[in-house]
């Protein structure tokens, strides 16, 4: 048996009808679009925009968002073709299994689970900080020993516990709550844009792209972008700063790919998934660029508060009440991010368990809720403990490199599947294939090279651990390896 063995599309589709592992199909195109917006609009607008503009790109952070959006847009087209052709839970993991082989699929799935769980933990800690700030602004308090930055972060723990229960109860119910919070979040983001325009000083845009500064974006080669370590390029501002900032603000876009993890629960995946993926990306790109223009127009880029850019900008204008409203929006916004990342992690773990690469017992679906309750509770427990007990710090780069690697592999897999299975019905097709998918993969790799050497070392350690688990458990317990994929020919005959 080969580590490059693939799981047939027919078998993947047949597994979705197995009563023991069957998820409830209840999501519409609107649900999927809101789902994507719910996770994309969050930390990127409320924290990342100001910090990156202040430290690396100045007003040119607008171009950073556009570069990241182009990368995501190309990858989104590839995801849309795959998700509409193979509407099965697992996202990049499932797509890779059908084209690039089991070992690559395992590595991507393993990486996605950890990245989504880590991302949820990091955002939960950020939520805790905004939650305490909001309570303080409305005259309430929180125990100092049980808050953000303390030994035990109780708000982050309680948030994850509540969201775990909601996700376990049902995907449709989760997205109803998500819809309300996303509506509130979008209202506040639009409020920031409309109200902030009146305080813009066009002199703050000069220079729009600050001159390149010598040195690195960190201390020592470990904290320097890998491409700069090799070629010795300037570290901040200018074109190099914009590109490095693009690799950071990419974190703000993660989410549209999480929509693909719910493919199996969409009512009409062939049409609704492409609409949900591309629609959420377009809406969020417009909002990000608008907010970046407002922030850098209200405050000179080198005076931006990197920790609370939006709130501080309005406080400086004497609008403390606006700052309170923004904090409330951040609480609502980050809640949806944590929930959506957890849903994504659960669906990827579910797909891997159903294939035998993880213990199959986890993949059982509750007949009452139509969700994999065991996986949901397990992942919720891990995220709650990590968020409340671990001083994670700023690990957006680790999330980015895992996501970019998944994007690159999905992009490569699109022309491979077209060549190997031209007979499959594709309701959505990436234009200009294979050139556009190859361009998508190249841009993803380029942005990965703009991440720090330290991030690359951690990523390699992560990959090594994944290999160890795959060969220690997954390879021997794989359903495809045990012959569950045979008769793949029998499934083919049903077409």
Descriptive notes:
The protein is mostly helical and 495 residues long. It has a single domain (25-422, 432-470), classed as Amino acid/polyamine transporter I (Up-down Bundle), CATH 1.20.1740. The chain is 67% helix and 0% strand. It is globular and about 65 Å long. The model is unreliable at 485-495 (pLDDT under 50). InterPro entries: AA/rel_permease1. It is a multi-pass membrane protein. Keywords: Membrane, Transmembrane, Transmembrane helix, Transport. It comes from Nocardioides oleivorans.
SSE blueprint and pairings:
Elements lengths: L8 H7 L13 H12 L2 H15 L3 H25 L6 H8 L2 H36 L16 H16 L1 H27 L28 H6 L6 H12 L6 H5 L8 H30 L10 H8 L3 H35 L18 H17 L6 H25 L14 H15 L3 H25 L10 H6 L2
Helix pairs in contact: 2-8, 2-12, 2-14, 3-10, 3-12, 4-10, 4-12, 4-16, 4-17, 5-6, 5-16, 6-7, 6-14, 6-15, 6-16, 6-18, 7-14, 7-15, 8-12, 8-14, 13-14, 14-15, 16-17, 16-18
Concise account of the structure shown:
It is found in: Membrane. The chain has 495 residues and is an all-alpha fold.
Proportion of residues in helical segments:
55-70%
User: What is the CA-atom radius of gyration, in angstroms?
Assistant: 22 Å
Order of helices and strands: HHHHHHHHHHHHHHHHHHH
Shape: globular
State the total count of DSSP E strands. 0
Mean pLDDT across every amino acid position = 80
Could you list the spans in which at least 5 consecutive residues all have pLDDT below 50? 485-495
N→C terminal distance: 27 Å
Name given to the CATH homologous superfamily: Amino acid/polyamine transporter I
Global structural class: mainly alpha
The appropriate CATH architecture is Up-down Bundle
Tell me about the biggest sheet?
none
Number of helices: 19
The CATH topology: Amino acid/polyamine transporter I
Strand percentage: under 5%
Provide the CATH top-level class: Mainly Alpha
